Amino acid sequence: MRRWNGWGDEATSMELPAHGAAFLQELIGEGRRLADASLASVLAQVPASRLPAHALISTDAETRVRHARGQSLPDWLAMREGNFAVFPDGVAFPETAAQIRELLAWAVDQEVIVIPYGGGTSVAGHINPQAGAQAVLTLSLERMNRLLDLDEESRLATFGPGANGPQVESQLRAHGYTLGHFPQSWELSTIGGWVASRSSGQQSLRYGRIEQLFAGGKLETFSGTLSLPTFPASAAGPDLRELVLGSEGRFGVISEVKVRISQLAEDERFYAVFLPSWAQALQAIRELAQARVPLSMARLSNAIETRTQLALAGHPGQIALLEKYLALRGAGEGKCMLTFGVTGNRLQNAASLKQAKRLLKGHGGVFTGTLLGKKWAEGRFRFPYLREALWQAGYVVDTLETATDWSNVDSLLNKVETSLRDGLREEGERVHVFTHLSHVYGEGSSIYTTYVFRPAADYAGTLARWSQLKHAASQVIAGNRGTISHQHGVGRDHAAYLPLEKGEQGMAVLRQLAGHFDPHGRLNPGVLLQD
Amino acid sequence: MRRWNGWGDEATSMELPAHGAAFLQELIGEGRRLADASLASVLAQVPASRLPAHALISTDAETRVRHARGQSLPDWLAMREGNFAVFPDGVAFPETAAQIRELLAWAVDQEVIVIPYGGGTSVAGHINPQAGAQAVLTLSLERMNRLLDLDEESRLATFGPGANGPQVESQLRAHGYTLGHFPQSWELSTIGGWVASRSSGQQSLRYGRIEQLFAGGKLETFSGTLSLPTFPASAAGPDLRELVLGSEGRFGVISEVKVRISQLAEDERFYAVFLPSWAQALQAIRELAQARVPLSMARLSNAIETRTQLALAGHPGQIALLEKYLALRGAGEGKCMLTFGVTGNRLQNAASLKQAKRLLKGHGGVFTGTLLGKKWAEGRFRFPYLREALWQAGYVVDTLETATDWSNVDSLLNKVETSLRDGLREEGERVHVFTHLSHVYGEGSSIYTTYVFRPAADYAGTLARWSQLKHAASQVIAGNRGTISHQHGVGRDHAAYLPLEKGEQGMAVLRQLAGHFDPHGRLNPGVLLQD
Asked: Where in the numbering of this chain does the FAD-binding PCMH-type domain appear (chains A, B) (predicted)?
């Protein structure tokens, strides 16, 4: 059963090794454990629903609890404390596009706010109901999860919007195909959610971001259905797919998603290489991207992340041996781990690997074979479980991310890390901060920063610590040529920073579009656009 | 000097070989030559300008003639007949974004229509002034043609919007870079025009379409400047670059273009392969695209185009020898020529070539080495000059294009060809029709069809023939899952078919955007959107 107050399935958990806790303790002090609320205590808080009865809508208390929050840190704290504040008045489970349209029409009649809901994995506050005079209906698409059509010749698959990662891949795999879209939230997040929030998968270097994979589909809006036909490319005016991508439930409800799929690759391997320094590593990964070496993924940890990963990896004896080996070959203190993958046919992969090796060796790269690469691949969806493990050990972890042009990557990365590392200095608290680049492009890179801090004495104080850190880093990003999100979307948490990026004219256009599709502001108000 | 009534420079021309004319004569009958008007006779028709004097605006008659028409077939016929109908009242040549904004403000004061003008190469009626009560100002960007900034680390170059292909490439080449965008119109078309009309270059397989190359920039609109910052990727809501791409001068005037550039490749080669049949060739090129073989271009001529190209190539003795060689190896009657290129470093190119050869040989491909590939590369911008050569020989040539998913490519291609081949049957006229696929994707392909027919006894009759053919083919495209344009844009000529593709909701959104940026319909009315 899915956790009601955290990530993933209750049966799955991650252990923090003892020396991992010691590592953190040395860095930021001993952890502090805040008390968790029980589900029963939360259920007791759920008020009566304000919605009239409707056959497609459940007003059951537990269903409402389970659809009230996403996976942002404020959501996490609210769930652990049992302090939800607001619940949706009901959750609808439509099974067809016609039922979505019926529910939208009903919402107009009943003057109800509607929140489209995919996998509930937002880390930016996309699906949280707000307090207000109007009742809130959460519209879960989980029953619309099937592969509806497969055009093998065109490599196009049509899905219901609620298919989550495993449902997408298993239905395609049965025919020999893959979408190749693997965000870290893959186990729970949905294809419709990926489109609505412009998601990026770990192997986007080969398969593309969701923008490249999304070929067309349907958006149900208050002013009618927007149908997007599929073309391999078109010069027929502005591309309207781009208004659905990133629409975050503000313009309409995605009722059908057509995606570009690939044949399952005959060969796939992941490698780990250690570079002697950040400067060399940064140049190496930029050159890999700009030379168009056909890799399927590349991820570069900075020195602190490399050290942290090795410390938290378990098997300290083996790690010590590895570090000795690396140091002998020139990658000692300050070394940075680069993980990369090749995916395709054997001939192509062999050529790509040869090219990558040649380039990386020129920058002092030390290869360790496929063992660490395999470990990365096996654990690729496990990171979100770490929050639970750290919480049990008395620590809070969150991540934030941006993307910027290469000429600004190092500078912005340092500014973001500094803003977090120094963010709680006034309270005398230390913050452990580390970063990797996980999506590289010819023009620049994403920057993905993790920060670990201790809870305050209570939940309110802990949330205040987070708010201070998040705001400091977000200001740095928005003020220094970073996008406010490379892969998580805007939601509520980033909405205040969006105008800095889109500008006055850009915001005016987005408001125009929202006004057109949803003239009464009934769809997910406050998300993406604050007003 | 640029031709005032046709394509390119007066000093450049193409000869139609004698046996080429004989080939056409056998297929569609003897050519007919219509009389050309003189520039003097056209200059005499230019009416007085209705514009008040302005320092940035020329009202000189020849300047107005030279900015009155693009390069569509109706434009061609109008220019050859000397029947322009409408001229712009003046042409402005701003040198800065501030001057563009000044001219827009002036246009509001003076109640003047404004037509943004890049290279004047539109083949879909993008820049033609229309008769009306309001004066028309054509706004040429030709003086804003410089490389303004180069961020080598991020591989980003900033250009004025009026830089044409040679200006873009020569300024980048001086620093060791290329944009890699080579549409057939490259000699004259501009970077701003490419963005405004969603252009695609011949090597888009490597470098991407202009959508992938356009990183940001500025659009001057009647409601203010829309500034698009550069990010390698972003999940921060809808991507507003996509509203500038394909805006066709309806939403604003592009005043600055930032593009993603590449290092000049160390190695580039083009090859020609002949496949025994269209069925085999079609499957082979689809597999090349779907297997992601890292080619830089791939172009497949159907059997009629292959035959036509060999017939028009010159050197009939050599061609006969080539055909004998091909036939002995299994590519005889019905053979199809596939041209492809590899661009990059030598290691990468060798691997790509090996992979492509293996795949193509599996489909009966017969390699002819690099000679024909070289010929393609040398003549790649020469095709537009062929219209002049055919006109001199008494024939009219035009092309049209679309794109569709692979499962529909063969069917749509046949329907388009049939609609043209049979299009003048009632008049007893034959039309010579042939096709190639020039831009291939995992999902589908562009379809580029050329048609040659004889002029009627006069210009009006010739235009009527063209209109009948164009309308028949456009209806077939719009009614059979094709986009109305893969690379030429909408303009006026395709605007009537756009609603079939965008749908009611899509058209409503586009009208909303036009209304927002240009509330009084002062920018290029009738282009993209008919109303």
From this structure: 84-264
Among candidates B213, B224, B212, which has minimal Cα distance to B252? Answer: B224
| A247 and A155 belong to one structural domain | yes
Query: How many Å lie between the alpha carbon of B100 and the closest alpha carbon of chain A?
Result: 17
Q: Round the average pLDDT of chain A to a whole number and report it.
A: 96
A 452-511 → B contacts, CB under 8 A? 481-490, 494, 498, 501-506, 508-510
Other C-beta atoms lying within 10 Å of the C-beta of residue A30: 12
Q: How far is the C-alpha of B239 from the C-alpha of B33, rounded, in Å?
A: 50
Question: Could you tell me if residue A77 is inside a domain?
Answer: yes
B244 → chain A, closest CA residue: A238
The range of the structural domain enclosing residue A129 comes to 45-140
Tell me the residues of chain A between 125 and 154 that have a Cβ less than 8 Å away from chain B: 151, 153-154
**Pair B409, B462 in one domain:** yes
Q: How far is B144 from B251, CA to CA, in rounded Å?
A: 19
CA angle B33, B34, B40 (to 5 degrees): 130
Q: Rounded to whole angstroms, how far apart are CA atoms B298 and B437?
A: 8
B263 contacts on A by Cβ (under 8 Å): 290-291
Closest CA to B438 of B265, B199, B264: B199
> Are residues A310 and A326 located together in one domain of the fold?
yes
Coil vs helix vs strand at B296: coil
CATH code (residue B44): 3.30.43.10
The answer on A113 and A87 residing in a single domain is yes
State pLDDT tens for residues B409-456. 999 999 999 999 999 999 999 999 999 999 999 999 999 999 999 999
Q: Is residue A433 part of a domain?
A: no
What span, in angstroms and rounded, lies between the C-alpha atoms of A152 and A390?
45
Number of domains in chain A: 3
Q: Which of B429, B381, B439, B453 is nearest to B406 (CA)?
A: B439
A259 belongs to a structural domain:
yes
Looking at the fold, whether B272 and B257 belong to one and the same domain comes out as no
Phi, psi values for residue A250, rounded to 5° = -85, -30
**Quick one: B355 and B277 in the same domain?**
yes
Q: What is the pLDDT of residues A204-249, one digit of tens each?
A: 999 999 999 999 999 999 999 999 999 999 999 999 999 999 999 9
SS (H, E, C) B74-134: HHHHHHHHCCCCCCCCEEECCCCHHHHHHHHHHHHHHCCEEEEECCCCCCCCCCCCCCCCC
Nearest to B238 among A237, A243, A403 (CB): A243
pTM of the model: 0.97
Do B127 and B199 share a structural domain?
A: no
Q: What are phi and psi of A381, to 5 degrees?
A: -105, 10
A509 to B243: CB separation less than 8 angstroms, yes or no: yes
In a domain, A485, yes or no: no
Contacts (Cβ under 8 Å, ≥6 apart) of B305: B337, B434, B435, B436, B450
What's the complex ipTM?
A: 0.97
Q: Are residues A136 and A156 in the same domain?
A: no
